[in-house]
Amino acid sequence: VAVKELVPTVIVIDDDDAVRDSLRMLLKSVEFPVNVYASAKEFLSRYVLDQPGCLIVDVRMPGMNGLELQQHLNMLGAMIPVIFITGHGDIAMAVEAMQSGAFDFLPKPFRDQDLLDRVQRALTKDADNRRDIKLHDMIRAHFELLTPREREVLQLIVSGKPNKVMAANLGVSQRTVEIHRARVMEKMQAGSLAQLVRMSLELQDQIKHT
Amino acid sequence: MTSIDNPSSELQALLDAAVDAVITIDSSGRIQVFNHTAERLFGYASLEVLGQNVNILMTDKDRQQHDAYLERYQRTGVPHIIGIGRRVAARRKDGTVFQAFLSVARVANANPPRYVGFVQDLTLRLQALREVLRERDRANRYLEAVQTILVALDRRGRVTLINRRGCEILGCDESALFDSDWFETVVPPEERASAVAQWEAFLSQQTHRSDNVEYHVRGVGGATRLIAWRYVMVEDTGGGVSGILCSGDDVTDSRRAEAEARDARERMMHVSRLATMGEMATGISHELNQPLAAITIYAQTAKRLLAAASPQIDDVGEALEQIANQALRAGEIIRHLRRLVRKHAAHREPTRVNDLIEELGTLTRADARANDVRVTLALAADLPLISLDAIQIQQVVLNLVSNAVQAFENSAIKDREILISTNLSEDGGVEIKVQDTGPGVSAEMLPRLFLPFATSKRDGTGLGLAISRGIMQAHKGRLEYSANNPSGACFIVSLPIG
Q1: Inter-chain contact A108–B289, Cβ cutoff 8 Å?
Q2: Could you tell me whether strands B417-424 and B374-379 are parallel, antiparallel, or unpaired per DSSP bridges?
Q3: pTM for the full model?
Q4: Which of A134, B188, B429, B434 has the fewest other C-beta atoms within 10 Å?
C-alpha cells in the first residue's frame, strides 16, 4: 500500500480573524506550509494523527479553549507539539498549559523571530518524536517475530548472563543457547550487544507483560 | 316732625324726607326743629325735645361744653364746626352712644343767630369700614407672613407693592423699592435683558393670563438668589391689564440641593461604571491586545517580505492594509471604553437601541471571550426610537453582561452562552433581554437582588443592579429578573416609548 507522505505543517488555531490571518501570512513568508482554523472543534474535525508539524493555539477561545484542546489531544494520544499564545496576564493559564504537556508558550504581542524559533524547534521535536515512534514501532515489529524461547533468551542476554549460565537456566546445551542468541540478534536486526540492550529498553514494558 | 316756628308745609315735607337727621337750635342751644330722621336716630319724639338744650343729644364732654362753644362762637365769630363738620359721639334717649358726622350751618340773617345741624349716622359705615380694614389687615398679614415674594408691578415694570419676604430677600425696604424700575433695581445686569424680554413677551400676548419664569435677583450682601416667578395679570374693571402680580419662590437652595443630588447620583453611576469596567478589565485588555498582536505580526511580516530577494509587493500591500484596519479596530475599542469611563452629565435623546447594543459588542465580547463565553446578538428590526441616556443604558446592559459572564466563573457549565436580544414590547416600547445559560440567581439571593450592597460575588460592590434599576426608573422603564428556560438568568430591561 502506497502511503502518501504528509508534509510537516504549521497549524494555527485562533478565533481572532486578524491574529489568525497575520500568523498565516508570517509563516507563509518564511515558506512554512500553513493551515488555519477558527476553532478547536473545526481543527479536530479535520485532524489526523499522522499529520506531522506543530500547533499554534490561542489559549482563550470560546467553545473549546486551548487547555481543553491540549487535554483532548493527550487523550487521543497525539504527540504534536503545541505552542500556546496567550494574552497579557494569562500566566496562570500558561503554567497550566505547560503542565498539561504544552511545548511552549508566547505572550502576545511577540517578536516574529521568537515565534519562528519556537516553531522551528517544535517541528524538529515533532520530527524527532515521529522518528522515535517509528523506531519503536520497528523494534516492536521485530520483537513480535521472536518465539517465546527466543524472548526468554533476549531477557537473559540483556541482563548480562554468560552463555553457560543461560544454558543452565534454560536446561539446554551451550550450543543451543548460541543458536538462539544468533537468531535473536538477527531478528532484532541488532549489530551489537549494546544496540540490543537499547532496543530492549524501548521494549521494557512489552517484555514485562509478555 | 314738628318745629316751634311752624314752617311752611313744603319745608316740612323736605325736612321729613331728608336722609340725615336735621336739627335746628336757637342762639342759646334750644332745639327748634327735630325731623323724622332725628326722631328715629335718637329715639326721642320731637315733642319731647323741642325747647330742650341740644346738649341732651351729646355725650359727657360735649354736653358740658356745648353752651360754652356757642357762647365763644357768638362772642369771637371764630367757627370751630360751622362749615367744617366733624365726627362726633351722639347719645340716644336710651343712653346708648353712636358715631355720627355732624355738619352745622348758621341760618343766614337770623338775629339772634340760629343754627341748623345735619347728623349722619356713621354706625353702618364705620362697621363696613372696620370690616374692610380687618380684611385688609388680614390680607396684609398673609402677605407678610408667606414665604413667597409678592411684588405687584405696573405695565412699565415699576413696583407698586412688595411684601416683607420680598424686602427680606432683596435686603431693602419697601419705600426704597416703591415706584422704582423692578428689573433695573433687582435683576443682575447679565440677566436683565432676558428678564425684560420675557416680561415684555408676557405683556404683549393675550393667550395666557399667567406665566412662569426664572431669574436671579440681587439679594442681601450682593449674593444673587435664584427665584422662580409666576406672573399673573391683574385686570382692572374695564378688562384692561392694570398690573402684574409676581409671586416668587427662592429656589436657590433647593436647586443647589437638586444639583448636588444629581451630581452625587452621576458620580455614583460613574463609580459603578468604573467598577463594572474594572471587573471586565482582563477581557478588555485582552481584546485590545488582539489588534496589537496582529499589527505586530503584519508589520514584521511586511519587513520580511521586503527583505526577500524578489519582494512580493502585493503581499506587503495587504499586510499594510491589515495594519491600518487593526489600528482602527484598537482605536474603536478605546473610543468605546473612553466613552463609558468618562464622567458624563445625564442627557437624553432619541436613540436606536440596537445601535447601543452593537456598540457595546467589542466590550461584551472581550469580557465573554476571556471566560470562554459566547455572546450572541438577536436584534429585532424596525424598533422605534427611544428617548434615553445612551451611556446610562449601556451601563445597565454592560453590567448585566458582566454579571452573566462572572456567573460562569468557577462553574463547571460547558455550554456557556449569553444572548442579548431586543424586541418590541407590548406597550410599544423596546425590551432588551440579557439571558445566560449560567447557574441563575439563587433562591436565597432573589429577594435581595436589586438591593444596594447585596452581592453574591466575592469582591462585588452590590451596587450594579441597584444603580441599574435606579437608571431604569429615571427612564420610566423597568429592570426585572426572571429565571431563564431551561436554566440560567434572564434580565429584562424595558424602555417605554415617549
Answers
A1: yes
A2: parallel
A3: 0.57
A4: A134
